[in-house]
Predict the 3D structure of the following.
Amino acid sequence: MPFLSETLARVKPSPTIAVSNLANELKAQGKDVIGLGAGEPDFDTPENIKAAAKAAIDAGKTKYTAVDGIPELKAAICAKLKRDNGLDYIPAQVTVGTGGKQILYNALMATMNPGDEVIIPAPYWVSYPDMVLLAGGEPVAVEAGMETNFKLSPEALEAAITPKTKWFIFNSPSNPTGSAYSAAELKGLTDVLMRHPHVWVMTDDMYEHLVYDGFEFATPAQVEPGLYDRTLTCNGVSKAYAMTGWRIGYAAGPEELIKAMRKIQSQSTSNPCSVSQWAAVEALNGTQEFLEPNNAMFKRRRDLVVDMLNQAEGITCPKPEGAFYVYPSVAGCIGKTSAAGIKIETDEDFARALLEEKGVAVVFGGAFGLSPNFRVSYATSDENLKKACERIQAFCAELS
Ligand SMILES: Cc1ncc(COP(=O)(O)O)c(C=O)c1O
């Protein structure tokens, strides 16, 4: 009898962790490594949010709470969904978990039956397919390549839907590409979904506030109110409020689904951290003033990285609408050999050689289901970005 679960055998270890491990090893050997792999803002949680957490500790808000969130946070989430997205929800339709990740996981655990399919546009956030597998479902990756700015076409969505499709996972702005769908582009997809009433929508709006050049964020239930009864709108405070370590994510959707998600959480982790929940109340209800200057900084960094990467021989880097990632293609480098003699046959070879020879850590595109590309996170200082891009340019110039 095998000791490890059979389900685990279907899940692959995180390729992003393999890259981080190699980067850490090289750092430990004293090598000068610049990491462009991190999926989190490089600045601190705003002071008003930290103060709310300290006040919660002092007030003894350190005990178990309701399993899926304190009423104050659920009220703040309902107000946020109305204010930012024009969506009406009551607290019974809202659930709070330990990060956006747990929310997505709960939703899949609560709904997957053997054979159920989940459509995931590729490139995708690394966790979606493996979460579907862990929950006993079948991920169905559908390519959305650079020619469509990494956006899924309505035709490709329609072609992927089968009688077994349970969910369509939608993520805009996207990790790993930064691409974001305008309301009109999204409408093309929601029109398809309206023709297939058995398909539910799990929208991961984690990067909602990180959009540039006046881009207007849109979410499925807002663009197509006809989908309200089969949409789970997922979000969290991790990225916009620089709160990745606090672990608060949330979702709003039909009450029956929310109840099922709560059941999973009640038998696994119980409530998310009480202090973090009070911090999240302040994040959502308090001043949103810092979002604008932060976005101005991210926009500047995006422009810097896109410009510099497009000057590297063999690299093509589209300029995305949001998040803090770019997803350049290395098609022009495939088949070449690095200065140290590594043959670049895949984006994984490219990323490994770049790290070993120039000390720049990026995540290869294969990890996100679309090659030959790599992901750069520009949530690091201008100085680091400039240095890293210069090294990438030098690496490419030396390819032969
Ligand atoms: C697209 C996307 N969704 C969800 C998450 C998870 O966020 P959290 O840290 O709140 O669990 C991430 C984090 O990287 C992400 O990129």
